[in-house]
Amino acid sequence: MSTKRNAYVNGKIFTSDDSNLYAEAMIVEDGVITWVGKEVDMPAEDYEKVDLAGKRVLPGFVDAHEHPAMLAEMSKQISCLPPVVHSIEELIEKIKEVRAQQGPGEWIKGWGYDEGKFAERRSPNRYDLDKGCSDSPVYLLRTCAHIICLNSKALEMAGVTKDTPDPEGGAIDRDENGEPTGVLRENARDLVNHLLPPLTQDQKADLVADLGQLLLSQGITAICDMGNMDPSDNYALYYAAAEKGFKQKVGIYYMWNYFHNDPDFRIPEKQFDKNQQIFSAGIKTIGDGSVSGRTAWMNEPYLDSDEYGISTITDEEMESAIAFCKRYHCQLSMHAMGGKTIDRMVNRVYKEEKWTLDDTPHLRLEHITEPSDQAIEKTIEKGFAFATQPIFLYAEIESYLKNLGPERTKTTYPVKTMLEKGVNLCFSTDAPATSWAVPSDPFPCIKGAVTRKAYDGTDCGQDQAVDIETAVKLYTKASAGVAGFKNIGQLRAGYQADFIVLCDDLLSVPSEEIDKVCVAATYVGGEKVYEK
Known about the structure:
YtcJ-like; alpha/beta; single chain; 6-stranded mixed β-sheet; hydrolase; 17 helices; hydrolase activity, acting on carbon-nitrogen (but not peptide) bonds
């Protein structure tokens, strides 16, 4: 069997490998990098040369926190974000358009609404949605994915009335008469989520395969699936999507709130093999909500209120999650935006010894809006990891200013401080749970990290900005390490040849133009799988 050898030459290669950060050429044999360096030092061997035409080359992006199955399904729903929707009135018109195309009783679904971006500067309610449709259930998911808005028909089907109590870890918004407004927060979503009609596995696989092509066009070659809003198992789904052309490597996390009461829940040992394209990475718990929805559980109250947010996990669920991960030696992830939630989990797992068997952190915390000094210190000491999303401040600045105020907002997500102290930290998007029209796009995320400005130019704390090289490493090498991916995230000998060629030089364009950079070509295992 012949060996396929390609030499990629005449490139501006940024490797994310600190021992050899910049290169001009790279040799790939059967999908694996065997050499990286200056072109004049390239070994004299028999290979086919590929001219990179002086373009910037990076490792493929590793998005360590996405919800791809959700994102794929949402491609067929109403986008409630600019530039599609700018107001509640426009949202009502979109609902009417969908209703005109389907029969009565069929669900109308939308995603991504953010009251901070509506002209009315308020959340929609049941009565707004009723104007769009009253004879079919309407279900809208807020941008944070922790809050939903329903019309009266959907509330009726779910049996939610003024007499329905708030579930533990959730809240039903009510008007002055105690009637539900249609907004359900956190665990209250489960009152209706079980009613949503599921897609077939084949339909889901088609959507995920289509999403894979979008991700390739954005330079994303590996992802972490951080769970669904239902107990479905995505392991088989990704294999079905791979048969339809899905190329990304995937680490899957199971949402523990759906399984912690199931004594028969298991993850087969073979699924933990990280040498596979698709593998099980661990489980995920939800510790609180979102800053934009005022449900993240904070150490300090929200602006002009005595509200601290919501804790959404019981001690019993947290303990069972730790026990499960120790048993399977797999990673535990927790959604932890607020300081109280971060402290709670860090303090609890601090008592444990590392239970993963490789260099994968046994605990990773997601988002990390306001970590305390002691949480940072304990995280460094115990080797925990943080996965954060610069896109939140960049895209959702209106909500942060409203809920925290300008000065406190500048202190959130202290990326540079955490890096200087030695925190194992990476970047990701949390797509689709962010208020951006194309939420999986890495470039606005990177721009937000480098400029520490929002999309409208608002200063988000210049002292926490990072340089472009650091931002790229946090989206490649660091993301692979936090998630436990093997032999990806860097362009170095022995690593898989997952890399991207850019239309513009990301490392030299003005920082205000980072979001305009695009991908010219994407390679997975040395195979060109996308070309602009």
